Amino acid sequence: MDHESELLGRARGGDTKAFDEIVTCHRSRIYALIFQILRNQEDALDLTQDTFIRAWRSLRKFDGRHPLGTWLHRIATNAAIDLIRRRQARPQCELNDGAMSVDPASRTTPSAPAVPGESIDRQDLRAILDRALASLSPEHRAVVVLREVEELSYEEIAERTKTSMGTVMSRLFYARKHLQTLLKDAHEEF
Amino acid sequence: MKNFESTFNRWLDGSLGEAQQREFEAGLDEETLRAAKAWPGMRALLKESAGQITLPHPDFLNEQIRRRIEEKQTTPASPVVFPLRRLLWAGAFCVASAVVFTAIFLPLKNPGNTSTIVFIAETASPGASASAFQTPGDRGAVIWLEGMPYIPDEERVQ
Fold this sequence. Notes:
Chain A has 190 residues and is an all-alpha fold. Chain A is 64% helix and 0% strand.
């Protein structure tokens, strides 16, 4: 029995110290995932807590067919998607895929290097990419993160986001096009 | 369009067959092709960027989680609160029941020849009132005036 299975067994028996160790092992990855989707530190911290609380309550339901990390990842994604949906009920931003047009001259457009031909260093590129990601709606960002960073299949994304494959494809298409347009000045640097 | 979106995604993921890829790329402009070439680099940077995200005050997070678990364990189960939606449904059910009850039982309380009070009006004079009655089947209503010493001539029915 590996260490994680042993911790899991103890946690299922109500051992909070064992669960605390599980939290320590997975907290950074769960927080990073939620933060990437929501782009808000406070929300990400709250949802990271909620994720582990939900996991604690459902430990007995965890069947062990998948790794614990995958299970936690699923809970975290669901929590983030649920939050987006709750906020969607209070419309704040554009949510139509088709409405996501890109104005190349808009203020969200990352700037090109000050001197043409001058290369942008990696850190600047990351900052540009972060700003471009932040300019996506949460729904579009979630799909990009799940596909590009978490490498989930289209089917898995549809299941996690509780949408159809068509919606996933559409969101991914518009999000990718949006990012490509916003980052077109930096394409040579990638 | 949906088909194009789907093909575009698969193309960017590199999962199109060679012939399909050639055919798809033939219909794309230079800018899109240039952006697609940069995409793997962008993807790598996205992953790198995700790896740079650090959890602030990690031990505080553990502490908060521990506290919440302990609270859940010591706090007795909270009483079940009747959800608002159920209350609304219950209210609607009560109203519907009242309507059905009225429709079924009220006519029985006014069988055939019992007269119905159409209105009762109190007047400014103490003890004086006017009432109107109607009996089903009759052709008119009875107006009953009570407590009035006399009816002025100009008001008297001829």
